[in-house]
Amino acid sequence: MSKLIVPSQHPDAEGKVLSITPESAAWEYIGLDVYRLKSGQSMRKSTGGMEICVTLLQGRADVFTNELKYANIGRRMSLFEEIPPYSMYVPMNDFIEVIALTDVEIAVSSAVGNPSPAYPARLIRPENVQVEIRGYGNMTRRVHSILPEQQEAGSLLVVEVFTPNGHWSSFPPHKHDQENLPHESYLEEIYYHRVNPDHGFAVQRVYTDDRSLDETMSVINGDAVLVPKGYHPVSAVPGYDLYYLNVMAGPVRTWKFHNDPAHEWLFKPPVREEQS
């Protein structure tokens, strides 16, 4: 198995099935924990020096921080309903507690916090999530911007993408591994994949211009892929719809990417001539 793949495990005593930290990924900024809680089970996590975004991938729960209490939130009972989720932004030196009211899947995206300015905890409601259809043809996908750069946070960026079976995402390929603003920003990135039906798979490639990194991976339901650098396109194979959650952060909180010049021509949709 590629070192870029982090597979999910059976739930531990806390319900955690996936854990990625800056230390385990051998980079500087981001992490991701995923929990699958049974009804009545709870999860509590202190943020410490990290800021986090807790996304209710599916299910309903009560959610608490130092200052906020929300009862019975959650709108998406199945991940592939393709409606925006509820999320909670939580700053450094705070905590989050989630009490599951149904079976719940939770993604805890994290990034090294930025102490100035400090932003308070807040609920990100489904109506606050920007929904966008990107691409054309078999590059069409549905994007939910949960914590984009237009919304307040220190360094963390969070987005989720639904890719129909037989389609491609993060395509044409792009990268963001250079501090070269305003043209390109340096951002570490995690892809957390879910596949429907869940016995299927997807394909992800991560490669650099000089091919010093060039891996094409088969990923299954629950796998995460680390993207430390390079281009990183994804394919949902025929018959299997694909969801992924993206976590990104770097020294500057902006998403400026560089396209692979070999495939940049695909950004222009083909012009169809009308027949007389």
Strand content: over 45%
User: Would you tell me the overall average pLDDT?
Assistant: 95
Shape: globular
Could you estimate the helical fraction of the residues in percent? under 10%
Count of separate DSSP helical elements: 1
- Distance between the ends: 55 Å
What's the helix-strand series? EEHEEEEEEEEEEEEEEEEEEEEEEE
Named at the architecture level, the CATH assignment is Sandwich
The main sheet comes to: 7 strands, antiparallel
Commentary on this structure:
It is a single chain. With 276 residues, the chain is mainly beta. The protein has one domain: Jelly Rolls. The protein has one helix spanning 22-25, and strands at 5-6, 16-20, 30-37, 42-46, 50-58, 61-64, 69-73, 87-90, 95-100, 104-112, 122-124, 130-134, 141-147, 157-163, 168-169, 174-175, 177-180, 184-186, 188-196, 201-207, 214-220, 224-227, 234-236, 241-249, 258-259. It has a seven-stranded antiparallel beta sheet with strand order 1-22-19-24-14-13-12, with no helix packed on it. A hairpin with a 3-residue loop joins strand 17 (177-180) and strand 18 (184-186). One of its GO terms (molecular function) is 5-deoxy-D-glucuronate isomerase activity.
Topology:
Elements: E1 5-6, E2 16-20, H1 22-25, E3 30-37, E4 42-46, E5 50-58, E6 61-64, E7 69-73, E8 87-90, E9 95-100, E10 104-112, E11 122-124, E12 130-134, E13 141-147, E14 157-163, E15 168-169, E16 174-175, E17 177-180, E18 184-186, E19 188-196, E20 201-207, E21 214-220, E22 224-227, E23 234-236, E24 241-249, E25 258-259
Antiparallel strand pairs: 1-22, 2-3, 3-10, 4-9, 5-8, 5-10, 6-7, 6-9, 8-11, 12-13, 13-14, 14-24, 15-23, 16-25, 17-18, 19-22, 19-24, 20-21, 20-23
Keywords: Isomerase
GO molecular function: 5-deoxy-D-glucuronate isomerase activity; glucuronate isomerase activity
Protein name: 5-deoxy-glucuronate isomerase
